[in-house]
Input
Amino acid sequence: MRSSAMRDMMAITARPEVISLAGGLPDTSTFPAEVFTREMDHIAKTSLAEALQYGPTDGLESVREQISKVMAAEGSIVDPADITPTTGGQQAIDLITKVLIDPGDVLICDAPTYPGAIPTFCSYEAEIIQIECDHDGMKIDLLEEALARLDEQGKRPKFIYSIPTFQNPGGSTLSLERRKRLVEIARREEILVVEDNPYGLLRYEGEPLPTLYSLDGGDYVVYIGTFSKILSAGLRIGWLVSPTPVREKVILGKGGADLCTSTLTQEFAARYFAESRWQEYIDELIGIYRNRRDAMIGAMSEYFPHGATWTKPRGGLFIWATMPEVLNTGDLLAKALGQNVAFVPGTSAYVDGRGESSMRLNFSGVKEDKIIEGIRRIGAVAREQLRLYETMTSTSEMKLPPGKPTSGRKWRADRGGIMKVALLHGGRSLERGVSLRSGARVAEALLDLGHVVEAFDLGPDLVSRLSETKPDVAFIALHGTDGEDGTVQSLLELLGIPYTGPGVAACQLTMDKSQAKYILRENGLPTPDWVTYSESAIRDFGAATSFQRAVEVIGMPLVAKPASQGSALGVKVVTSPEEIPAALITALSYDSRALLETWVSGREVAVSVLGDEVLPIVEAIPTDSNAYDFEARYEIGGAEFVCPADLEPDETEEVSRVALAAYNALGCKGFSRVDLMLGENGPQILEVNAIPGLTETSLLPQAAEAAGIEFNELVARILELA
Output
């Protein structure tokens, strides 16, 4: 499965204060309310019982007929019997992949390609080959070279997936010459081409080009369409047009997935396209979206840094922008989210890590004033990152040295039986998605235990809601900023509400990795050597000139990490001094301070402490990478966990002793987790997590289970320790 890191980071874009240029949203506010009311009223009066019933898996005949008319508007003549309505275009992609791909099969697609297709292709364990695109779409000469290499290897692609018209995310359009060549290749090699065409009717300029389907006649081209971009994404109606043998398998696959697409929305769509002036509505959308595209391009010209480039699509919903090479847009997103603006990083459109300096920007779902403000914020963050990088790289050349020199709360309440529990989860941090998953699992356990639960997502009404609710206790399932830095704990103490986990002082210490390491060292506990840098020190005091000295003191390789962030976000391993500036830019994207820390090789282990009890040690062994990073932590299958860890008795004793000593030195209470690296010189403390995750892949629940403590009991114990 593809990484969940970006999905979890993007979870905060749903907050109303965030200007999201990340989605692929049409502007549904433009749809006439009277048309919706009229069509639904007619359905209610004439066919309500049928509309509320299951429908045929291969779709209603009436909607298939209207789909054929919509396709005809682009010059594609199709028999309605060859059309299979689906639950959105996304299901169409999933179904065609499901019926054609077995694990290890090869498929070919654009580079970059639709970010929503990549997780689907990966979920069926396909080998994905991406062919570079330019302004005229997929480079067909490179496609032919790839086919020749595959033939030499005895491999044959199951299909070629492409968005030839107003491509998502690149905005390019496959030229007529390349369209003809692609269809010729499909016929000559007898390879299916999957043409995904969500945006073809949203043309802002230029002459329309024939679809691949119309050039081929439907022999080797499978066509995917959707009403999501020209009518409503909420209807969830897409469709597939495919040769009969493929269509039969698709219908079988769809029956196993959802039985049928919503009969009600099919009825609505069929009536709308039969009765309404739908082409006039599309013309209205074209005018709106063209203005928004132009507003975004104008804003980028004004606010984006020198060296940035972008496409000017002739239609569709997206612009593909590329920043100067030294900027990583995944890191830039972390900074941008702090300014309440979001986009999709370019790496999500590739399977091999390309696109690090690019981003996808959507202009259709946001009005012009917000587009301009969102671009201004992204540009300001990008220029800030560039200035910081230039400051660091303007120093003298560094060389690798020959070798490294040698609160707890003051009150407790006697509580028992059923309690009213305020579950705090979500929040504003980049770990919002993980927190929501922890919170959902905790809520289920609390309800099983018989407690009354009210969930609280952090917002401006938090204090007033807590004051009104008057809970007996607060269960904190927050991660990162606000949840683990003592902010929420301070408010709860002010309100007199007991809470789970460590107190304010311990949270502040564990959240600040640099300060925590000082405390650990003062208590004689082992932690890797480190140096702390702040943005202001680099920008205003010439701290970049000390990088050489830092390397001499702490050695190489080293790790750059944010000073106040969790879940391995913003962490990079540095193997040469020249990599330090880029690594610090990544770390400083997540916090205003960053650590350079000696890299310790060995086995990554975690010790969870519940009350004063040390739970069995967990070892995390990443499956697909060399580091136990965000993906390995939170993606199911991202790491193998061994609990109890297979350690020698003396190793187990020493790791447990060091972990408990760190827990106590930082003033932790209730529960926490200590992460260590066990190397040839014994355990080294990497960090202490005040509020460790409670998701399905989190280590605390695994350690508790190994100690004979089921999840519900674990939640009950944590609650008792509040």
Q: What stands out?
A: The CA atoms of residues 85 and 239 lie 4 Å apart. Confidence is low (pLDDT under 50) at residues 1-6, 403-415.
